[in-house]
Amino acid sequence: MPISESMVQDIVQEVMAKMQIADAPAGKHGIFKDMNEAIEAAKASQKIVRKMSLDQREKIITCIRRKTKENAEILARMGVDETGMGNVGDKILKHHLVADKTPGTEDLSTTAWSGDRGLTLIEMGPFGVIGAITPCTNPSETILCNTIGMLAGGNTVVFNPHPAAIKTSIYAINLLNEASLESGGPDNIAVTVEKPTLETSNIMMKHKDIPLIAATGGPGVVTAVLSSGKRGIGAGAGNPPAVVDETADVRKAAQDIVNGCTFDNNLPCIAEKEIVAVASITDELMHYLVSENDCYLASKEEQDKLVETVLAGGKLNRKCVGRDARTLLSMIGVNAPANIRCIVFEGPKEHPLIATELMMPILGVVRAKDFDDAVEQAVWLEHGNRHSAHIHSKNIDNITKYAKAIDTAILVKNAPSYAALGFGGEGYCTFTIASRTGEGLTSASTFTKRRRCVMADSLCIR
Can you give the pTM of this predicted structure? Predict the structure, then answer.
């Protein structure tokens, strides 16, 4: 059979990729100075990955899971040291969650129709090289989780990480490529640049060889991706309210809400950001928050100081994001006891510490006159992000009414928010929750395109 030009190009690309494996410096796999070079390397590796069997891809993913667990503490400490956000213990748990509960190739499926007119298949195929923008709040967790899913689907990925977490991101990307090499796969299944900027992000989004962009971050990043002219998966902001009605186990609700709110200092986008409580149980709830769950009840004066500090000039103070409650209180001159985990107060829904997504362990409590009022206020507070929401109730009708009204990608009932990611709840883990573009909790199948294969009048053997 004659060798075509395209076949020659495929052979050349494979040889180049293998040369890169041999020449890559230790500890720097997948790291480039130039974004265009990074994309070319990922493109060459994707030509190899797409020909791999699912078993071969799964072998790499198994190695990624093992390395993620082995490096969980290192990555957690790097993330906290580099960004100043979150806490090491919870970040270790998040890395184990990624390793254990991120779907791999098992998430891919084939649909088949067989009948008198033949056989039709719909299969999940790769996009190619995916561009991904990742945040500083969950830097390594997002990179590892994204790559497992994208690689399972037959893709490679080019990351433009948040500059504030580049060291942690580079460590994670190097880990991914080492796992591939150790498992017989190519280098550069995940790549990035040494110094990510807005310019490198723009190059990535406009590059002809990037058909799909996945953005995990704030509303500005997601808007930029959705304006790129490419297909975009947007995981943006949320301001998840936790509703507590008169039928709830109020004591347990207080504990669950504080546990969810304080996990990794409130960095997860799904975490409880405020409470809306029916008036008849609000005082009881406040009692349990303060007396049993290590919450600090902020006075009006302290609330005002917090507003000035964490929302300096009306904008979110990045130096406060992901800080623990005692650190935040120290910024306003309060020397809180060592056990304090969360700051609470009661206020109207319009209070700036309630209406704004803070990503800090600060919980404003809004008093609602009845359940319908609670739903109305919670919907307003969620700001139409359709991201995440929570409810504590034993009334199925109330839960159903709230679920329909809030219309979020995630709704957690009678549990801490992190149950949504499979931590203390059923289901798989993800760190890219695409509420704005509708994919919801992304996984391997999200990063594939459906391809229909039809054989007419044959292969039906009934």
Answer: 0.90
pLDDT in tens, 402-447: 999 999 999 999 999 999 999 989 999 999 999 888 899 999 999 9
Contact 136, 85 (CB under 8 A): yes
CA distance linking residue 88 with residue 189, whole number of Å: 28
Range 353-383 burial, b when 16+ CB lie within 10 A, else e: bbbbbbbbbbbbbbbbeebeebbebbbbbbb
Tens-place pLDDT, residues 124-163: 999 999 999 999 999 999 999 999 999 999 999 999 999 9
Q: Which residues contact 102 (CB under 8 A, 6 or more apart)?
A: 65, 144, 145, 148, 149, 428, 429, 430, 443
As a dihedral over the C-alpha atoms of residue 337, residue 266, residue 244, residue 281, rounded to 10 degrees, the angle is: 10
Q: CA 435 to CA 406: how far, in whole Å?
A: 12
Alpha-carbon span 87 to 110, nearest angstrom: 41
Query: 70: part of which helix (H) or strand (E)?
Result: helix 54-70
> Could you count the other beta carbons within 10 Å of the beta carbon of residue 37?
12
Q: Residue 131: beta bridge partners?
A: 158, 213
Using CB atoms within 10 Å of the CB of residue 39, give its burial: 0 to 12 exposed, 13 to 18 middle, 19+ buried. buried
